[in-house]
Every structure is written in structure tokens, then in C-alpha cells.
């Protein structure tokens, strides 16, 4: 589903050149749930941004569903994000002036989905994250965990096959974090491929496959094996 | 993709900036439409046809202090000298000068005083049979004065003036049925027969309630203070004006020739206030429009910097750049439409107030409509550059800022 071959990303600022990713190689298959860990500043977010076509990369090749992302123009990338990818951010990134219903509606409107179909999907997604009764609330009226669930509903509403989450539980306490994780696992069982960056090693361990980014590169293959073992052990 | 409803809802939830801008747009629309109308009104007032070839006419004052001459005779001599001067078409002693802001007005009555009857206000000039030619105006009916009809005197006499030439405006007001030529009107108790009609010429006061009513009365009462009007051939006025003082003093030296001014110059002096007001209004509306444009520009920039993360998130969720631009355009159009709706109402009320207190004419709806359209276009223009900037915000902002 996702394939990166020797992808490199360099940030050029006035003073320094940062190699955020170097010769990054990764293959993600349909239906996987991958937890990405690594030290701060190692390039996890950069990887996620490139995977989600939020920023360009300098070298290498990135295929998403067989489409060479490097050859797409801005509109094509926007459309592809809208159709294939759901984003979940550490800061939730709900739009403060829109109520929950309208927030979830945003990507659906960009896709040009008709009003009654939008309504059906939004209500279904709100139901799924357990916030159906709060559709008219504004984000600031909710707790962090609830906000993140709305963000997940927004990511789900477009029925993306690929969910990218950057420290989705980073701003949440452990109870809420576990709820969000359970939600993601449920979504993964329903068929979506998930790549989740996290600091929380306990949560990471719950993911069937773990990868570690160190200094802009995929590190330690053994973790992958370890994850495999857990996967087998849990009988999934 | 126009998403009016969520934009409107979002606006309603954080409306302070929007409401301020809305009010600003309303005020701009109200003031600009009224000011534009007043300016247009002034422009047509200033550019109105006066009936005179203003560029070819000038006047001067004669103040005679010498007492060793007969003034009437002297003026006869002066006039014939002036009329022979190279470049001069004609010249005449004129009791007042058109467009100058100074003159005499009285009323022409259908019945002799003290009988009651239709009475019409009019300005009048005491002037001789050279009046029509000197002022270059158009006799459309009847005839000019004959030389015999002109009464020249500076003594009390039994002889009376008994004819007049009037403007069409005055004639029509006295005789609405159009049969006034040849009729008698009364100037006080003095009967005057209307023998000629001038198509159009303005009196001394453009702002008079009857600026078009003017009568020539063929009567020359020589006095130590007099005004003379001169018409020159086109393009020769300046040269004649330069020579006039010497020529007059050569004829007779115990007098002062001054106030040598073109008719256009007199008109400009008379209308100076109007032109000043017009300029101030133009400056005012320019500043207002600029401030409003800047306000829209600034508010959009402010909104963009406040919503950087939101814009990045929208882009991440699949908004094309054009969707971001259209978001800001639609948002602005919404604020602007509400502001314009309020502005139209305010403009009408302001127009009514100006009408009531400053006797300005009724504001035509077309002025409000054109102003509203112009303000709308200007606001779209003001928002376009910031909106394009917003569209260029990188979607990666969504993950890079907390
Ligand atoms: N926009 C940017 N400009 C310059 N340097 C950046 C930018 N974004 C990230 N970096 C640098 O790239 C490296 C990787 O960053 P990031 O991918 O955010 O790391 P992580 O998410 O693993 O903490 C860091 O050294 C960071 O400082
Ligand atoms: Mg990060």
C-alpha cells in the first residue's frame, strides 16, 4: 500500500542543513497497524508528513497505492489526501469556530459529497466515537480525549484506507489514551491501515508491528520481529 | 466549492472583527454614495452652461475722481474707443456683471404696483443696445434695442425707459402660455414692453433661486463708479486686458481702472467654496475607501495569522489551494453583503437627512447601487492578495505546531 525507497528530506535553514530523513526505506502493507517510535527529533513527524503528502521530499521514490507521489501536482496531492488518507494530530486540530458536526463535515465537503450523504456519515462516525449527542457542541466544550475522538471521527468520515496519526495520545492522560488506542484498534480491525507515531512504549507494544526511527533512518529490525512475536502471542 | 453555511456559522461564533468591518463597510457605503452624489451635483453645477463665451469676456471697473467732465459723454467716448480697439468685438457699460456674485434683482410684475398680480423675481442689468453683442448671447425672438430706446442720463428727466429684453426662463415664468413677447411688464410702476428674448444667460448669482432670470433694461446712468464689459475675438482677451488700463487712461486720466477680470475668473471666484467643498469631499471619500480597503486587508491578514494551523489542517484534510482562497473570498463577501445591506439603509437615511437640513437634492438610488458594487469589488480586491497568501500555507503546519 505504501512504499518508500531511499527517501531523503533535508531542511535548509539559514544556518543549518538538517537531514530529517536519509535513504529511508519502508513498505507498509494493506491492513497493517504500525507504531513508529524513536527519539525526539529523529524524523518521525517528517516521515509521517511525507507519507501523508503534507510536504515534499528531496530524493528517492514514494509510491502510495502504486501512484508515484513525486509526480503529482498540488491539486492532485490534495485530492489524494482527501480520498485516501485520514489524519490524526497530537493537537487534535479541530477548527474552533465549527461545531463537531461541521468539523467532521470539512473533508466531506472538500470531496463534494452531497448533504444527506454527509449527514449520514457524520452521524455514523459520531456514533462510532461515542459523541452522537454532542454534534452541536464546539470543540472547546469538550475534554481533550473527546476532542481527539472527534478528530478521529473526522479522519474516518471520508472512509480513508490509510490513517496517519502523529502522537495521537500525546496530549491525553493514560485513561483517555487507552480509549483512543482502543478506537484505533477497532478501526484497524475494520480494515484501515494505520501508521501511528507515539512516545508511549506501552501503546506501541500493543501495535502488531513496531518500527523505530533513529537519526532519519529506520533502525533495529529486531523490534519488528519482536512485534511479530507479540502479534502471534496475542493470537491476532 | 462554495461552503457558505459553515463559513457563516463560523463567522457568527467569532464576530467581533467581522462586525467592526461590517460597520465600516456600511459607513463607507453610506458616506461615499452621498458624497459622490454631492460631488456629481457640484460638478454639473460648476460645468453648467452659462450662455456666455466666458473665455472671451472680461470686465473692469472705472472709478472717476476727476470732476471736469460730463460722465455720460465721457462714457460714450470710452465705449466708442473700446469698440474700435483691435481684438475687441464689442463693449458696454453694464450696471452689473454676470456670474460675479454682485448685482441687482427685483421683480417683474404683470400689474403695476401697488396692484396685486403675478410677480417674478429677476436680476436686471442697466445696459445699452450693445448688450447682446457684448455678452455674446443669443437673441431667439424679437429684436434688439434701437439706439433711440436707450436712455442715457445723469440728470432727473421726464423721459422714461419703456422696453426690455428678457431671458426665455423669465418670459416663460411670466407668461407660461408662451405669448409673452410684446406684452407689458411692470418694473415697480414703470411699464416695460418685452421686445426681445434671449435663449440662455445666467444672472449674477449662480446660486440664486432664479439663476436664469435676467432682464436688460436700456438705461445708462453715468456714475463715478462704473463697470464695463468687453468681449474680444477668441484668443485675444489677454492682450486686450493688458492694454485696457492705458487705453482708458489715455482717454481721460483722472480715474482709476482696476478689477480687470475675465468672466471665467469671476465665476471661479464665485464658485471657489463649492470647488473647495468638492475637493474636500473627494479627499474624504478617497480616504474612507482606502481605510476600508486597508481594514479588509488587515482583518484578512489577521485572520490568516490567527488561523494558520486551521488552514494547514484544512489543506491536510484535502482542501485545494483554490478552496482556501474561495473560503476567504466567501467570508469577505458575506461580511460585505451584510455591511452593504446596512450601508444602503444608512445611505438612504443620510440622504434624507442631508435633504432635510442642507437642502441637497434627493439621492438617486443609482448612486447607492454603483457605490455598493464598487465597495464590493474593492473588498474582493483587498482580500485577494491575503487569501492567496493563505493558500500558500504549507499543509505540514498541521503537524508542526501544537
Ligand atoms: N520545518 C523545519 N525546518 C527545519 N528543520 C526542521 C523542520 N521540521 C523539522 N525539522 C528538523 O528535522 C528533524 C526531524 O524533525 P521531526 O520529524 O519533527 O522529528 P520528530 O517528529 O521525530 O521529533 C529535527 O531535527 C527538526 O528540528
Ligand atoms: Mg514529532
From TrEMBL, chain A:
* Pfam families, A to Z: ABC_tran
GO MF, one example: ATP binding
ABC transporter domain: from which residue to which, for each copy?
2-236
- Provide the alphabetized UniProt keywords: ATP-binding, Nucleotide-binding, Transport
Against InterPro entries, the record matches this protein to:
AAA+_ATPase, ABC_transporter-like_ATP-bd, ABC_transporter-like_CS, ABC_transpr_LolD-like, MacB-like_ATP-bd, P-loop_NTPase
For whether the record's keyword set contains Transport, the answer is yes
Report if keyword Membrane is assigned: no
Query: PROSITE patterns from the entry?
Result: ABC_TRANSPORTER_1, ABC_TRANSPORTER_2
- Superkingdom field: Bacteria
Q: Which SMART domains would you find in this protein's record?
A: AAA
The name this protein goes by in its record = ABC transporter ATP-binding protein
What is the source species? Pseudoalteromonas distincta
Question: Which lineage?
Answer: Bacteria, Pseudomonadati, Pseudomonadota, Gammaproteobacteria, Alteromonadales
From TrEMBL, chain B:
Segments traversing the membrane: 276-302, 323-350, 362-385
Per UniProt, residues of the ABC3 transporter permease C-terminal domain are 282-395
Q: So which domain of life are we looking at?
A: Bacteria
Its membrane topology: Multi-pass membrane protein
List the Pfam families hit by this protein, alphabetically. FtsX, MacB_PCD
Where is this protein found?
Cell membrane
> MacB-like periplasmic core domain: which residues?
75-246
Cite the entry's keywords alphabetically: Cell membrane, Membrane, Transmembrane, Transmembrane helix
Please give the InterPro entries that the UniProt record associates with this protein.
Answer: ABC3_permease_C, MacB_PCD, Macrolide_Exporter_MacB
PANTHER family, alphabetized: ABC TRANSPORTER PERMEASE YTRF, MEMBRANE COMPONENT OF TRANSPORTER-RELATED
Q: Which family does it belong to?
A: Belongs to the ABC-4 integral membrane protein family.
Give the protein's recorded name: ABC transporter permease
Biological source species: Pseudoalteromonas distincta
Amino acid at each position: 500500500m505504501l512504499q518508500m525507497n531511499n527517501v531523503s528530506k533535508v531542511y535548509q535553514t539559514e544556518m543549518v542543513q538538517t537531514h530529517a530523513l536519509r535513504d529511508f526505506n519502508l513498505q507498509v502493507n494493506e491492513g497493517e497497524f504500525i507504531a513508529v517510535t524513536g527519539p525526539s527529533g529523529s524524523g518521525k513527524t517528517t516521515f509521517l508528513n511525507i507519507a501523508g503528502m503534507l510536504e515534499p521530499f528531496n530524493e528517492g521514490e514514494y509510491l502510495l497505492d502504486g501512484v508515484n507521489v513525486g509526480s503529482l501536482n498540488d491539486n492532485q496531492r490534495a485530492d489524494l489526501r482527501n480520498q485516501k488518507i485520514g489524519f490524526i494530530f497530537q493537537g487534535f486540530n479541530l477548527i474552533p469556530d465549527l461545531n463537531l458536526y461541521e468539523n467532521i463535515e470539512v473533508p466531506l465537503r472538500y470531496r463534494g459529497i452531497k448533504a444527506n450523504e454527509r449527514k449520514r456519515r457524520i452521524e455514523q462516525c459520531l456514533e462510532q466515537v461515542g459523541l452522537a449527542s454532542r454534534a452541536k457542541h464546539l470543540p472547546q466544550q469538550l475534554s481533550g480525549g473527546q476532542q481527539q475522538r472527534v478528530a478521529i471521527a473526522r479522519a474516518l468520515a471520508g472512509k480513508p484506507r490509510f490513517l496517519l496519526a502523529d502522537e495521537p495520545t500525546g496530549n491525553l492522560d493514560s485513561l483517555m489514551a487507552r480509549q483512543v488506542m482502543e478506537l484505533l484498534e477497532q478501526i484497524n480491525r475494520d480494515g484501515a491501515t494505520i501508521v501511528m507515531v507515539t512516545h508511549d512504549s506501552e501503546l506501541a507494544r500493543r501495535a502488531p508491528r513496531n518500527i523505530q526511527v533513529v537519526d532519519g533512518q529506520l533502525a533495529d529490525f529486531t523490534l519488528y520481529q519482536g512485534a511479530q512475536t507479540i502479534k502471534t502471542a496475542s493470537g491476532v | 466549492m462554495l461552503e457558505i453555511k459553515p463559513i457563516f456559522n463560523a463567522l457568527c461564533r467569532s464576530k467581533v472583527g467581522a462586525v467592526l468591518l461590517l460597520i465600516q463597510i456600511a459607513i463607507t457605503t453610506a458616506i461615499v454614495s452621498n458624497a459622490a452624489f454631492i460631488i456629481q451635483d457640484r460638478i454639473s453645477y460648476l460645468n453648467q452652461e452659462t450662455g456666455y463665451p466666458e473665455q472671451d469676456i472680461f470686465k473692469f471697473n472705472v472709478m472717476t475722481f476727476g470732476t471736469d467732465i460730463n460722465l455720460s459723454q465721457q462714457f460714450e467716448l470710452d465705449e466708442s474707443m473700446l469698440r474700435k480697439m483691435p481684438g475687441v468685438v464689442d463693449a458696454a457699460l453694464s450696471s452689473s456683471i454676470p456670474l460675479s456674485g454682485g448685482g441687482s434683482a427685483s421683480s417683474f410684475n404683470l400689474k403695476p404696483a401697488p396692484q396685486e398680480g403675478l410677480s417674478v423675481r429677476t436680476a436686471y442689468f442697466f445696459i445699452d443696445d450693445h448688450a447682446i453683442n457684448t455678452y455674446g448671447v443669443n437673441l431667439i425672438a424679437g429684436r434688439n434695442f434701437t439706439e433711440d430706446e436707450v436712455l442715457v442720463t445723469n440728470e432727473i428727466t421726464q423721459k422714461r425707459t419703456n422696453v426690455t429684453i428678457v431671458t426665455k426662463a423669465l418670459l416663460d415664468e411670466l407668461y407660461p402660455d408662451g405669448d409673452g413677447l410684446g406684452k407689458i411688464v411692470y418694473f415697480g410702476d414703470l411699464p416695460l414692453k418685452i421686445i426681445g428674448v434671449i435663449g440662455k444667460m445666467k444672472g449674477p448669482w449662480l446660486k440664486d433661486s432664479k439663476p436664469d432670470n435676467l432682464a436688460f433694461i436700456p438705461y445708462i446712468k453715468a456714475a463715478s463708479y462704473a463697470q464695463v464689459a468687453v468681449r474680444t475675438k477668441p484668443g485675444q482677451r489677454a492682450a486686450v486686458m493688458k492694454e485696457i488700463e492705458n487705453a482708458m487712461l489715455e482717454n481721460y486720466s483722472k480715474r482709476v481702472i482696476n478689477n480687470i477680470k475675465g468672466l471665467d475668473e469671476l465665476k471661479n471666484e464665485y464658485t471657489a467654496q463649492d470647488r473647495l467643498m468638492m475637493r474636500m469631499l473627494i479627499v474624504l471619500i478617497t480616504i474612507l475607501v482606502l481605510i476600508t480597503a486597508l481594514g479588509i486587508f488587515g482583518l484578512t491578514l489577521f485572520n490568516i495569522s490567527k488561523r494558520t494551523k486551521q488552514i494547514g489542517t484544512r489543506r491536510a484534510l484535502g482542501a485545494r489551494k483554490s478552496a482556501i482562497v474561495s473560503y476567504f473570498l466567501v467570508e469577505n463577501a458575506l461580511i460585505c453583503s451584510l455591511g452593504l445591506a446596512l450601508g444602503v439603509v444608512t445611505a438612504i437615511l443620510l440622504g434624507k437627512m442631508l435633504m432635510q437640513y442642507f437642502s441637497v437634492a434627493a439621492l438617486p438610488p443609482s448612486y447607492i447601487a454603483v457605490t455598493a458594487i464598487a465597495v464590493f469589488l474593492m473588498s474582493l480586491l483587498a482580500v485577494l492578495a491575503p487569501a492567496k497568501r493563505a493558500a500558500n500555507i504549507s499543509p505540514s503546519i498541521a503537524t508542526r505546531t501544537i
